[in-house]
Design brief:
Layout: H1 10-27, E1 31-38, E2 41-49, E3 62-63, H2 68-81, H3 105-110, H4 135-139, H5 156-170, H6 174-186, E4 203-205, E5 212-214, H7 224-227, E6 230-231, H8 233-245, H9 253-259, E7 273-275, E8 280-284, E9 287-296, E10 299-306, E11 311-317, H10 325-339, H11 355-358, E12 362-366, E13 369-375, E14 381-384, E15 393-397, E16 402-405, E17 414-419, E18 425-430, E19 433-436
Antiparallel strand pairs: 1-2, 1-11, 3-6, 4-5, 7-8, 8-9, 9-10, 10-11, 12-13, 12-19, 13-14, 14-15, 15-16, 16-17, 17-18, 18-19
Helix pairs in contact: 1-10, 2-5, 2-6, 8-9
Length: 461
């Protein structure tokens, strides 16, 4: 990722600066840094501080708290893609003896395992990891708070289990695996388990007076996969690009798309937020955003992206509370997207087309409902209502004349092209639904049959 030669407009840059200046002043944070990435490139960053002439830049480390969970999720998805595990596997299959073995790996990733939000004993973020030397110390005697798989309940111990799973299957410490498999391949040279200069110090600001005190920076030990990492706005911008596009050396575009897909029930009373696999999902100002917030004593962080707009924003501050880092990041996205909307690529015809596939393009009917099959630029097809809708799905070819749904209502379903003896297309068969060229076409194998008298009007009296 490099700085873009196409800089943001001066008015946009000033609006971004105003937003972070307001956040730092109203949130009373000793310092704050933010960055915006557009189409894979860093296009803006700036910082604010209470120390004259000492504002942090995009290369200064801050602690990122629970954004660490997204990195841990990437490691688990890599194991899945290699065939080492399946997301439906119970934890006990790969990490026996935890006392929470019935929880599946997918449930841990999506926080639907029913585990407690925090560890027993003292506040783990502000106490020595020596108090929790074993997983039994992290989980306690009663690790569950809810029935397994029934609801979303955010769990820090759950991601400790995932980190221990990675260590067990890789035979190496979590941080070593992370550095080798994710940080180094993506060029995240300023992301680490321990702070590396230059880095910010963590501060607690008194809620009712403009005074502050330093926060301790504890090593989290077994809890590290849930919140240990330090990083920079620049590194997190690179990581956000990866979460949008994938990287074949780390995790495919299909797998990072799976991370961004809702995997947990919608939170009660909040239809605009959900959780994927290691990523939070929200709807803001008509946009679907993916990312994660983070906090540890002395630090708050937010990383959010909009795939549709090709934008990502990062906000890092060194205060225990006061700055809504995720809200600031989503506001930065909105400012750029509204002021400088993405310019579409020029339309271009397909480089080649299979005549047998082109023959399928156009309107089809499921009963009386009109549906359109379109060819897509990636060599697939899409099937959906004329004006879009809940049953709009993309399909990839299987190489044998069938197609598999990639998303929407028909995700995973098989689309078959049925032909007559003379080779002409009779109908489409999709998950038991028959699509014909005419509504309830005569002679087509429509379930239940077609009235032999066909269509008619109301008889005159």
């Amino acid at each position: 990722m490099t700085t873009s030669p196409e800089e943001l407009l001066p008015t946009t840059r000033r609006a971004l600066l105003h937003r972070i200046a307001t956040a730092q002043a109203e949130g009373r944070s000793p310092s704050l840094v933010a960055a915006v990435v557009r189409d894979g490139q860093l296009v803006w960053s700036d910082g604010r501080t209470c120390v004259d002439g000492h504002a942090p830049d995009e290369g200064v480390q801050f602690r990122i708290g629970s954004i660490t969970k997204t990195f841990t999720a990437v490691l688990v998805l890599r194991l899945r893609d290699e065939g080492v595990l399946d997301l439906g596997d119970p934890l006990e299959k790969h990490l026996p003896g935890t006392g929470a073995g019935q929880v599946t790996i997918a449930e841990l990733l999506a926080h639907t395992g029913g585990l407690a939000a925090e560890t027993p004993g003292p506040w783990w973020e502000r106490s020595s990891s020596s108090l929790r030397p074993e997983l039994t110390d992290v989980l306690g005697e009663e690790p569950f708070r809810h029935p397994v798989g029934r609801q979303h309940h955010y769990s820090n111990p759950g991601y400790t289990l995932l980190g221990s799973l990675v260590e067990a299957l890789r035979g190496a410490p979590w941080e070593d695996v992370l550095r080798r498999e994710v940080l180094e391949p993506l060029g995240l040279q300023r992301t680490s388990g321990q702070p590396q200069a230059p880095h910010a110090g963590g501060w607690a600001v008194h809620p009712w007076a403009d005074v502050m005190m330093p926060e301790p920076a504890e090593d989290l030990g077994l809890m590290a996969p849930a919140g240990q990492l330090w990083s920079t706005a620049q590194d997190l911008g690179r990581f956000a690009v990866f979460l949008m596009e994938g990287d074949d050396g780390v995790l495919s575009a299909q797998s990072v798309r799976e991370m961004r897909t809702p995997a947990a029930p919608t939170l009660p009373g909040d239809w605009d937020s959900s959780y994927g696999l290691g990523l939070q999902l929200v709807r803001r100002n008509g946009r679907v955003l993916a990312g994660h917030g983070g906090s540890l004593p002395g630090f708050v962080a937010g990383l959010w992206l909009s795939e549709e707009d090709g934008l990502a924003a990062v906000t890092l501050a060194n205060c225990t509370s006061g700055v809504p880092a995720s809200t600031v990041s989503t506001d930065l996205l909105r400012i750029v997207a509204d002021a400088e909307p993405r310019i579409p690529e020029p339309w271009r015809p397909l480089p080649e087309v299979d005549a047998a596939v082109l023959e399928l393009a156009g309107p089809w009917y499921w009963g009386t409902q009109s549906t359109v099959l379109r060819l897509t630029a990636d060599g697939g097809v899409s099937l959906g209502p004329l004006t879009g809708g809940a049953r709009d799905s993309r399909f990839r070819p299987n190489g044998d004349g069938t197609w598999t749904g990639l998303d929407g209502y028909y995700a995973g379903e098989l689309l078959r092209i049925e032909r007559r003896p003379d080779g002409s297309v009779s109908h489409l068969d999709l998950g038991s639904f028959v699509f014909t060229r005419e509504p309830y076409e005569k002679g087509a194998p429509v379930p239940g049959g077609v009235d032999p008298e066909g269509w008619r009007g109301l008889p005159r009296s």
